[in-house]
Specification:
A hairpin with a 3-residue loop joins β7 and β8. α7 runs parallel beside α15 and α8 crosses α9. It contains 20 helices and 18 strands. It is 44% helix and 18% strand. The longest helix has 20 residues. The protein has a 7-stranded mixed β-sheet, sandwiched between helices. Strands 2-14-15-18-17 form a 5-stranded mixed β-sheet. It has a two-stranded parallel ribbon with strand order 1-16. It has 3 domains: 77 residues, no CATH class; 112 residues, Alpha-Beta Complex (Aspartate Aminotransferase, domain 1); 248 residues, Aspartate Aminotransferase, domain 2 (3-Layer(aba) Sandwich). The protein is of the alpha/beta class. The protein is globular, with a radius of gyration of 28 Å. The structure holds pyridoxal-5'-phosphate. The site of pyridoxal-5'-phosphate (PLP) has 14 residues, from α8 and β11. Pyridoxal-5'-phosphate (PLP) binds next to α8 and β11. It is found in: Cytoplasm.
Length: 466
């Protein structure tokens, strides 16, 4: 052991090694940073020798130098791999929470790029030459599209729920139906957010049935808010009873108590008209006379991560003034992305321009066309694959419309050597990772969530696997 330790090169010797400056030059990393890493690598090798993990007695100084340079280069190369990587979603789940939910429209991306590289009017009013408010950037769009009196945007919908409860109901009571005390992905629980906000939760009804009279009976002098929560990721079937927003609005009016609905996804596009689900639009909800609504920016809206709050001006103003609004505020990229997204809705171009809307309503025949292009390209090469096309179901995902299954066509893939799990792994390791479904020993590709240029990448990945 002592023998190997004696051969360990000094830092100045390593720095004089030809590979040191080669790595610095080739990978554009400063020699100062590389020198720090050299210290780390030498320490690591020294420890390995001491712990007898490195016992090869033939290791002389030159070999040790090469070993350290190999490690140094490996570490440097890792900087060229991103932790946050682009992937291709071939699962057919449109709003895949693990894969980043909505992908943005070209218009939204252009606006983000435009704003990212310059100074902007984030908080500057061009007509007065004085300070402006970032709240003004998308408020008019939201008012025009939804018909609400006022609007604001925070970091995400979880933050929106928190802000509404904190600004309107701290030290007061909020009445919620037991059937709507949800927990959604990423450990968001209505009851816990409520506790954090300082509001007191008053549960009414039972898990499966809540009546309007349950709300009426629970109202006291301390009631600050009636709250309704979209069930989002589950549905109650069988003997159930919910209180409609309309009925709650009527009770709220009579008792002069505001009513708030956490809509979860909150779509601006009417999917019902396309025979997809029963999701009410934000516009329809506003028409009921409800006071406050909140929803996500990156679910059915198809924009960047954000929490949108729309409703009566007096409540929105109160929330804008709350200190918490400053904590939860969004940055210029989110506002740029939202502006780009909302413009498509104002123009009535969401079917054409918003990928989330477009993907959800894409007819199965159009998915079949992509599947056929794929199969056709595969046919021309002799591989161990067996492909077949079958009817299937796509999902909306993102904890929205849990019951909705969208008719689609899928390509089922088998291989004469690899198992479906091995195949899925190979696809995950492709230079642009491809994420697929695995079911019944088959890999399933749903091209609903794969766009034209991505289809070429999937074809390439399969051709390279033979
Ligand atoms: C998704 C969802 C949230 C959380 O929204 P984020 O934008 O993910 O923070 C809150 N409430 C409901 C009902 C939801 O569906």
């Amino acid at each position: 052991m002592m023998n190997i330790l004696r051969h360990l090169p000094a830092i100045h010797q390593l720095k004089a090694h030809a590979r040191f400056s080669q790595i610095a030059l080739k990978l554009q990393i400063s020699e100062d940073v590389l020198t720090e890493w050299l210290h780390e690598q030498v320490d690591m090798i020294r420890n390995k020798i001491r712990n007898k993990e490195l016992t090869d007695e033939t290791l002389d100084r030159n070999k040790l130098m090469e070993l350290i340079m190999d490690e140094l280069e490996k570490k440097a190369l890792r900087l060229y791999e991103d932790n946050l990587q682009r992937v291709i979603n071939a699962t057919g789940v449109v709003l895949h929470t693990n894969l980043g939910r909505a992908r943005l429209s070209k218009q939204a991306i252009n606006q983000i790029t435009n704003i990212a590289s310059s100074y902007s009017t984030l908080e500057y009013n061009l007509s007065t030459g004085k300070r402006g408010s970032r709240h003004d950037i998308v408020e008019d769009y939201l008012k025009q599209i939804t018909g609400a009196e006022a609007a604001m945007v925070v970091n995400n919908n979880a933050a929106a729920v928190y802000l509404v409860l904190k600004a309107i109901a701290t030290d007061k009571e909020v009445i919620v139906s037991r059937g709507e005390l949800i927990e959604i992905g990423g450990s968001f629980r209505i009851s816990e957010v409520m506790e954090e906000s300082g509001a007191t939760l008053v549960e009414v009804g039972t898990t499966n049935k809540t009546y309007a009279s349950d709300f009426e009976k629970a109202i006291t002098e301390d009631t600050a808010l009636l709250m309704k929560v979209h069930k989002s990721n589950f549905s109650l079937v069988g003997f159930t009873k919910d209180v409609d927003t309309d009925d709650l609005v009527e009770i709220a009016r009579k008792q002069h108590i505001p009513i708030y609905e956490d809509l979860g996804s909150g779509t601006l596009f009417n999917f019902k008209n396309e025979q997809i689900g029963t999701e009410p639009t934000v516009q329809e909800k506003i028409k009921t006379g409800i006071d406050i609504i909140s929803f996500s920016g990156d679910k059915l809206l198809g924009g960047p991560q954000a929490g949108v709050i729309v409703g009566k001006k007096c409540f929105i103003d109160k929330m804008k003034k709350d200190q918490l609004a400053r904590v939860l505020r969004v940055d210029k990229f989110t506002l740029a992305g939202l502006e780009g997204t909302l413009k498509s809705y104002l123009k009535g171009q969401e079917k054409q321009e918003i990928p989330t809307v477009r993907d959800i309503i894409e007819p199965r025949e159009s998915v079949l066309e992509k599947a056929n292009v794929f199969i056709e390209k595969m046919r021309s090469s002799d591989t161990g694959f067996v492909f077949s096309i079958d009817l299937g179901k796509s999902k909306v995902g993102g904890g929205t419309m849990p019951d909705v299954e969208i008719d689609t066509y899928v390509v089922k893939v088998k291989h004469n050597q690899y198992t479906s799990a091995e195949l899925a792994e190979k696809l995950r390791y492709y230079k642009i990772p491809i994420i697929v479904r695995v079911k019944n020993e088959e890999v399933i590709l749903d091209f609903r969530t794969v766009h034209g240029d991505e289809l070429d990448v999937v074809i390439e990945a399969f051709l390279q696997m033979q």
